[in-house]
Task: structure prediction
Amino acid sequence: MKVLIIHNFHRTGSASGDDQVYNNEARLLEEHGIEVVKYNTSNDVFDNAKLIGKICITLGMIWSFKHYNNVKSIIKKEKPDIVHVHTFFPILSPSILYAAKRCGVKVIATLHDTRFVCPCASSLRGDTICNDCGDGKYFRMCGFRCFKGSKTMSFFVACVFKYHRWRKSFYKQIDRYICLNDTQIDLLKAIGFAEEKIIKKYNFVDNKSQTVKKNGVDITRITSDFPKRYVVYYGRLGVEKGINTLMKTWDNLVDIPLVIIGGGPLEQEVEQWAAHKSNVYYLGYKDHDTCLAFVKKADFVVFPSVWYEGCSMVEIESQMLGKPVVASDIGFSRELIKDGYNGLLFPLKDCNSFAKRVKELWYDNSQILKMGNNAEAEFENKFDRENNYLQLKKIYEDVLLT
Result:
């Protein structure tokens, strides 16, 4: 079997789970003898372009003739059995779906977010859950400046999705949708996506991360002045990750050390805030192995996300390392965490409850150990790498029979 895997990478230095999943799945398939052809681009292309280039790329969000033609050429040359799309927005555009279908190749899409419901992909208006655009009336985005706080950019993105809603691109040009949690499935079904084309498959942790679990990375140089015990947050520093909730909560947790690792839109704000906190250690962006090394030494992980998530690699990796997670009671976290068994949940954006749950775990070492052991067992049951390959292979085989 030959598979063409397509992905639009985020910016260099962005802690993005879908980038990681794309790489992990490509390696997984290759290791099992599947011939993999890759086609991708990166948002760095836009950042590095001059003005005319930026304008062309922006217009190409509706229909990229460049990537449409490139994908058609690759398909004609390589003759893949399957085209598996991870992320197409913003640069690749939905044109790549048409390129594959017009070449007679089956298309599978892994949905790492809720973009088919919410063009901003997060189902958030500010930091509040919103799925109003599921009705296709996208131009309300302009009034709320949903996309990057800009009316102009919101208008353009609304045009992109209005056009493809009219053409039913996401309904007709994809043969199978791989969803990462039950919330995604419910949202798609609510706006008319065919239930028989939807399947759920969790992400998995790559062997490389498993090696870090066994051998670790030496971080003593970084932690020489750290306390022996600490709680860790790692990942993207954006509104959707509940960073404001994290900071407000730790304003009242002066005795519990917090290590924050990651980059993103709020990193400057986080850095300035942490500079005035004697118990908060902001390390900025670190490579993945270093992140896991910090998690391995932490007591537990906090994850106050205010959106659904897809299949959070942060939470899965934390379980792999035997660490409980204190998380918002929403989306994938609600699906993963059995409250009091392998972690703790708190109501969305409720800083008082968040602080209470952190204290509850911090001051009970026996519970930290017990929940950590349960978390590791859950990981082994749900996120086995070999089982993930078998699921993916079956999805490919089934769609070829339709």
In short: The radius of gyration is 21 Å.
